[in-house]
């Protein structure tokens, strides 16, 4: 009994570990996708102790002119109250070490946060620099800290050095913070400027449900498709492959129209693969009655097989590329059908008119769908008024 119990506990631990890994991978994927929409933006945080009793942050005012040195400007700015629960998300993928006393002060009063936009043209350049993941973060962080590190002391006379504060107990508190990498930035923007998710129409991917993998002969695709339409909400993916082995299979068609173009002989060798979500037993029973060639024994194995047949798109490539290819193919099919229809109409017209003119073939060209670029709405929110002390003009020597 003890051995059985030990194995059950080990299995539960393994499942919990696999789930945690899957959730972390999904989080990184979503943050990377979000960061791709924020290529020209980054974040600057002024901690609560930088705001005086008059609700004024002189450091923020001084930095307005300093941002010109890195070709950036404030795009949005507001006060944000950080909660204890949000601290890990705000400093995600960040090695900064915050003392307990600093964390307590961080949640007592609001921070002043700035969303900065990169303008792309430096004083010594005539053309904008191409943007890439991590560029604006590196640019601002190098300027603020002098080093690309949150654990090393900032370089003398840099922004971070001038704004850090030594407390009575000798502890050094940072006055400002900016992320060093795109994952950290994306997570911070979600916490500090959550409205950008709506502005950019960003939808997070969710962890797929437990799935069964089912395989049929592609020659029965029309028959299977009738049942697919009935249980469409439970169908995660459908595709046509040249093999039943998920380790080596290659997709040869994505739709029935594409399948038909393969020809009868190749269709006989093609397999129809379906990822079926386990929500209720009805869909599984319905498809099982169609005598599939294969059905995964459980959702653990099935989910892994489905991931091999239908891996997610490379997050560093254009995430809409696959969808665009499908759209172009559909447009080409429609154009071909339209061209054939026009040709038939023309031939009928020629016969009626008794003319023997040769029918010209109609060409249909299809433009590839351009990816929708995402722009945030400009404008600056209500902010803490930043006032400078008259005796101080510059921060960085």
From TrEMBL:
Regions of compositional bias (Acidic residues) in chain numbering: 316-356
Compositional bias per record (Basic and acidic residues), positions renumbered to this chain: 366-377
Domain of life of the native organism: Eukaryota
UniProt-annotated stretches for the region Disordered: 306-397
Boundaries of every DUF4746 domain copy: 173-321
UniProt protein name: DUF4746 domain-containing protein
Organism per entry: Cuerna arida
């Amino acid at each position: 009994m003890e051995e059985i119990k030990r194995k059950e506990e080990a299995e539960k631990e393994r499942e919990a570990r696999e789930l945690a890994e899957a959730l972390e991978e999904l989080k990184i994927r979503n943050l990377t996708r979000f960061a791709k929409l924020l290529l020209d933006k980054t974040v600057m945080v002024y901690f609560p102790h930088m705001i005086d009793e008059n609700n004024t942050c002189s450091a923020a005012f001084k930095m307005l002119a300093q941002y010109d040195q890195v070709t950036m400007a404030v795009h949005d700015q507001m006060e944000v109250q950080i909660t204890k629960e949000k601290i890990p998300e705000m400093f995600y993928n960040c090695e900064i070490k915050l003392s307990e006393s600093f964390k307590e002060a961080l949640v007592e009063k609001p921070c002043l946060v700035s969303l900065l936009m990169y303008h792309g043209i430096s004083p010594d350049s005539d053309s904008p620099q191409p943007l890439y993941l991590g560029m604006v973060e590196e640019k601002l962080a190098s300027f603020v800290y002098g080093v690309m590190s949150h654990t090393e002391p900032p370089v003398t006379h840099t922004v971070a050095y001038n704004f850090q504060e030594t407390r009575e107990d000798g502890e050094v508190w940072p006055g400002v913070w900016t992320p060093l990498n795109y994952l950290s930035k994306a997570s911070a923007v979600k916490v500090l400027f959550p409205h950008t998710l709506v502005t950019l129409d960003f939808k997070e991917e969710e962890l797929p449900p437990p799935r069964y993998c089912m395989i049929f002969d592609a020659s029965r695709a029309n028959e299977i498709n009738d049942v697919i339409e009935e249980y469409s909400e439970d169908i995660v993916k459908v595709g046509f492959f040249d093999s039943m082995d998920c380790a080596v299979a290659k997709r040869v068609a994505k739709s029935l129209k594409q399948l038909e173009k393969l020809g009868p002989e190749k269709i006989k060798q093609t397999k129809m693969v379906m990822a079926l979500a386990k929500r209720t037993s009805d869909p599984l029973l319905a498809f099982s009655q169609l005598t599939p060639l294969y059905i995964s024994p459980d959702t653990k194995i099935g989910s892994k097989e489905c991931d091999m047949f239908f891996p997610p798109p490379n997050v560093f490539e254009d995430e809409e590329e696959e969808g665009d290819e499908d759209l172009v193919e559909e447009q080409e099919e429609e154009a071909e059908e339209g061209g054939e229809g026009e040709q038939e109409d023309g031939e009928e017209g020629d016969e009626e008119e008794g003319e023997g003119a040769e029918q010209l073939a109609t060409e249909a060209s299809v433009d590839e769908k351009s990816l929708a670029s995402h722009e945030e709405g400009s404008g600056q929110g209500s902010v803490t008024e930043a006032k400078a002390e008259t005796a101080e003009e510059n921060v960085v020597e």
